[in-house]
Design a protein that fits this description.
Largest sheet of chain A: 8 strands, antiparallel
Number of domains of chain A: 2
Radius of gyration of chain A: 20 Å
Number of helices of chain A: 11
Structural class of chain A: alpha+beta
Oligomer: homodimer
Shape of chain A: globular
Helix content of chain A: 25-40%
Number of strands of chain A: 20
Amino acid sequence: MDERVHEHAEVLVDWSARVEAGDDVVLSVAEGTHDLAVAVAEELGDRGANLLTTYDSDEVARAYLRAHDGGFSTGEHELTMVENADVYLRLGGGRNTSALADVPSTARQKYATATAELREARMATDWVSTVHPTRSLAQQAGMAYEEYRNFAYSAILRDWEALAGEMAGMKELLDSGSEVRIEKERTDLTMSVEGRTAVNSAASVSYDSHNLPSGEVFTAPHATEGEVFFDVPMTINGKRLRDVSLTFEGGEVVDFSAGANEGELETILDTDDGARRSGELGIGMNRGIDRFTDNILFDEKMGDTIHLALGRAYDACLPDGEAGNASAVHVDLITDMSEGVMEIDGEVVQRNGVFRWEEGFER
Amino acid sequence: MDERVHEHAEVLVDWSARVEAGDDVVLSVAEGTHDLAVAVAEELGDRGANLLTTYDSDEVARAYLRAHDGGFSTGEHELTMVENADVYLRLGGGRNTSALADVPSTARQKYATATAELREARMATDWVSTVHPTRSLAQQAGMAYEEYRNFAYSAILRDWEALAGEMAGMKELLDSGSEVRIEKERTDLTMSVEGRTAVNSAASVSYDSHNLPSGEVFTAPHATEGEVFFDVPMTINGKRLRDVSLTFEGGEVVDFSAGANEGELETILDTDDGARRSGELGIGMNRGIDRFTDNILFDEKMGDTIHLALGRAYDACLPDGEAGNASAVHVDLITDMSEGVMEIDGEVVQRNGVFRWEEGFER
């Protein structure tokens, strides 16, 4: 077994999930993640955790969803399992990213609605979602298998403690600032971050961060004004969006265009009122990610990118008791900042992808 | 997918487990059983059951057990999952029957002891254990993959209703009889079945039968007397026992020998007092099984065999409130009856592998 699989398991169990002896752990294993599951089981045994392994197979889900009449309900067996779990580790990575392609979206929606309680219970655990590099994910990224493994482990096996420290500085700038401005090709956008709290997403439940890899600082902006161009392609609901342009006025999208699948963009914007407002501003800071691979878990963390989400804001960014932007959707769109500028209250924080505190920053 | 995989799934869900709409089902999936899991998920979706799939990987278990210090405990998450399950379907069939070979037996025993509550909770569900024919099982049986699949499906895809009817007749003979006698090479054995109730093991929870395939009628004999020779090899605790001979006096084994691994046989007999008494007499009646494959699930059901177990008796065979033979072990030993005679109260029920009601029976 690739030694990095063991390192991945160790980071997941110790840094990300902070597993302790006696913890009840659910290990959710996708079809292509057997090797990582074995390595994680070894770490969990060593820590003295109680292990229950579930099989999260897209092909099993497809067969079940297609055969069902749609009157889904939440099984008490699954609900009590999750409610009694301390830690929920999700190992993603299947054998075919299109394995659910012919499941009617109505069936998926009905299932998601009927099992909302399950998702909430999962979110109440110390959950972490990670990805085992499979051939299927390599294919989606347009990369050779070995090349993709190198890419994925470079993103996952960071010095997380050091990155968390660097991101704490970024969080401080956002928390103490009031206006963020982004300027680049076809882009001049301002947002207020006044009164909002940024999250230092350092790939650990101790930082309220539940993805491995992570490496972004995000907040919940409001009063967004101006134009923004997203040059990084994104697959949303199976549709590939390209070259999305949005114009904000009074905090709302008033004009939009896309180089491909503009209809899908329109559907998203028309979901509800909140879908036209920005719910998240995220600043990618993971320098281990050096290219886009059509996988949001990696793309939005990349070191010289910024993403903006249409729709729902995260509670962690809002003052206690205050509701942020409400919406049924949360759709991330990414822009490449390798030729652009980000300012906070008029001061340049990042120029052409280089942060102020990094070598090579041009004052 | 082999059409027989779908037929297997249908028999499992309908005939064996009697799954109904709204049932909370745990589907336990071994490493090599993905295809059967997909087919079963389809049946469960169609029946409107609530599906939770667990991953029963020997390699995951090995890593966990070897790394753990041995202070195991039962996870509340797993216990509540099983306690809330209506049905527990176990799909056996790994990729290496020796996958747990280097797990110290003390670790296995400690884990089994610490999680006894889990096993009891599973036994309280409508549980069924079946096997998906894998290459690994074909190898263990010394058969080609396609040959083994044909063998397995011939055993699994029976007319269970008809077989249940035939076995009901056998049960009647045992229930109304008082003494069973077996005679063959190196064998002349009598047992009392007075006051005992036979189980018609027809591969369905409706018959208190939890294996698919099944196809045996068994009871709990006592006062066993005489000699018996087991010519079918059996792998017990990883040791291959051959040509076992036992001599019973006053219901207890007073002499024994084995053609191979006699020491293992001695260890079994010395476990406790009950290990020297017979806990089960089973009569194989599944004519779909035409050879021995070193897998007890199949071997003991074969149509012209009888097996005797040393150790624990099943409660279902005993009068209410009466304790049967108590023991920590239950070790099945099989004898080929294709050249032999079984009598009940002096009347021949089977001669040379042919039952009295079958064509070719010699009076």
